[in-house]
Amino acid sequence: MKDMMPDLEHQKFSTACSATMEDASQTVQAVVSELRSWPSVDVADEVEIVLAEALTNVVEHAYRDGTAGWIRLRCRACEDRLVLSILDGGGGALVKGLPGADMPELEVDTSNLPEGGFGWPLIQSLASSVGYRRRLGVNRLEIAFQLGAVPA
What we know:
five-stranded antiparallel beta sheet, disordered N terminus, 3 helices, 152 residues, Heat Shock Protein 90, alpha+beta
């Protein structure tokens, strides 16, 4: 028999910040602090890593031309999932779809080690699902986490 989970429909919130590294970092900490207060949410550590990577990508890539920008974040827990929706008005950095989940090649000379390329594989390995769409000039990244999952 499946363990009973409390009705989580009321557990949701939204927030917004400017698209700067400082504001993104503060937003990650605020979101994680809020999630730690939700007794049924057991993925706060994973959310912290994934949200930091995702917001960094928005700041560095969606607004790469240096224009001032905004980020909106919606978070909701329902049934056995926690869903983060990240919206921004930056350039469509993901118009060709989500990057692959393959890690960069590490079997290279230390002078040729990659500096980046770890974020998307990390996000995809920690989340249960990741989706993206761009509509009417707004990027929407939706990341879901399974709640109550038994670690492997």
